[in-house]
Amino acid sequence: MEVCGDLHGPRPPFNPVYILRLEQLLRHLLSNGEESGGSAASSRAALTWWLCGRREDPCAFEKGGKRLLQQCSTLLQQHVHPVSLLLYRRRLLGGGPFAEDSACKPTGEASVRGKDEALRDGSVLALAIEGGAMRGCVCAGMAVALHHMGFSDAFDVIYGSSAGALIGAFLVSRQLAYEGSCVYTDWLPYLGSRFLNLRRIGRALGLGCLLDGDVLDLFRSRLGTPLVNLDALLLEVLQKKQPFNFSQFQRNDLKQPLKVIASGLLSLKPVTLDSAGGSIKDMASLCECLRASMLLPGLTGPVVHLPLWTHPSATPESKDEPHASSWGPLARFLPIVASSCLPRFSAEAPKALVTEPLADALLFEAVPYRSAIAQGASHVLVLRSRPDKAPVTRLKGIEAAIEMRMARRFFLRKHHDLRPVYDFMRRRGHREIYMRDMLRLNAATNQINHLISGAYTASGPAGGLKRGPHDSERRAHAMAVAVGGTEKEAQKLKADRGAIIRGVRSGFAALWEALQPDPALREKGLEEALKIFPDDLAFSPALKGAPLPSPPPYTAEEASAHLTPEELAEHLLQAVAAVQVGGESLDRKSPEQPHPGETGAS
């Protein structure tokens, strides 16, 4: 089976922010009536004369104002995607998790923030970031664009899979535009073979030292020196060379938590790692969570163990298995255990623990929008690293043989209790999930009022993903952003600085074009990206000593703030005319219809 994308989200022929400003003004004037004073009284008078000039009854402002307000609501609901509309509204009104005043959610509604707080708009907006190894540079560019355009504070919660979790961490710590992106543009090319050494492919394929000639490696490491050295990134770069700002991350994480998605190799479903669940306590534990999410089976080292239960009287020296009836919940009190801390020839965790081995999120949730919806999000913006027009297929021939040989070695020979994961990969279950997700997200993006669920469906006789008790009841608006068909897909295992910078730019431009409210500026995404990531972009100061430039200001910031009430009303009429000339439907509301991505892939 081969699936190609058809992403063509709504691009309204008007500026939604102008309509939102007029809507906000009208609501204020109509709610306060003639008692409005100061600038509100002036605005009311100006709109009254404007209505009079259009042969409206000058004494009946309420009637004309309500009609204008209805037109505003109709335009926004029928021609602007709910996710982008919520982003515009929050940026305009100052809403989001960092707003000073919040209202409480209705009783019984789940809060992904882990608090009984909510925004006054009553919505939960999540950001879901795909990974993709080096291809994650595209999503890094999208994250920079979000920050550059002023949307960083609008999200209630951020979900990241694999490299997307690292990007999400930098977004929460607000180390953008350069500190986060230069991990891709500078550090990975600088590390070179210390981070990515393709000569190590021999051990990953179970061929010993035949390809790299390192005989001693057979005795140093049970799995072999990994092809991708995550220690170079997580320990050397993030903790020493260019320190990650964990204190700032911790402060922001209280209001805008990061949810790191990994694959549970026993439960056969996505696992969420966060500070609320006790997984992220300090920089070391954050790095272990990132390691778990980025741990490509067979390429990046041993699995990471998530402690689940403990036996109250058990000790590491105990020889007896703890009885299940005496286990107690543990999640908030013990750290994640890296397999690198375990004995040389042991695939097991310490005796007193029963653990969940974790690996890369790509197995069960490469694009983490499902977890966001299942955990209470009402709106999800999804950043995808793969170009939408790039075909997604079941691997065949030599590629399939290589993937399955690595999976067989990793899950069967080195971890004897993980056959269900191997069977899942052998059936190409992870690729089937990805194809379904692409179809579902495109449908939710292209059709404004198309709601999708966070439900998981089983794949094959042995399952792999199971539908949760409440998953089918939770539905949300989702909007995906991906680079177009003309962009060349970034290679997952190639650290070329020029190609990475081009990938960052293309991601920035794609996000800009998807969320830029001004139609006149939508096609200038690449031009804006070049201002931040020029061809002569300086290296990180930690590498070359040259200071990074200050990011240019967001020059497209709200021109609507300087428009008069009459000009806003005129823009409304122009928007209505533009929609009618474009022949767009005035009623796009429809119930969710079955979609090829829902019914299964063959």
UniProtKB/TrEMBL annotation:
Pfam families noted in UniProt: Patatin
SUPFAM superfamilies: FabD/lysophospholipase-like
Residue intervals of the PNPLA domain: 127-340
PANTHER family registered for this protein in UniProt: NEUROPATHY TARGET ESTERASE/SWISS CHEESE D.MELANOGASTER, PNPLA DOMAIN-CONTAINING PROTEIN
GO molecular function, one term: lipase activity
Identification of the protein by name: Patatin family protein
Taxonomic superkingdom: Eukaryota
Renumbered residue ranges of the record's region Disordered: 580-602
Keyword annotations of the record: Hydrolase, Lipid degradation, Lipid metabolism
Stretches that traverse the bilayer: none
Stretches assigned to coiled coil: none
Motif GXSXG, residue numbers: 160-164
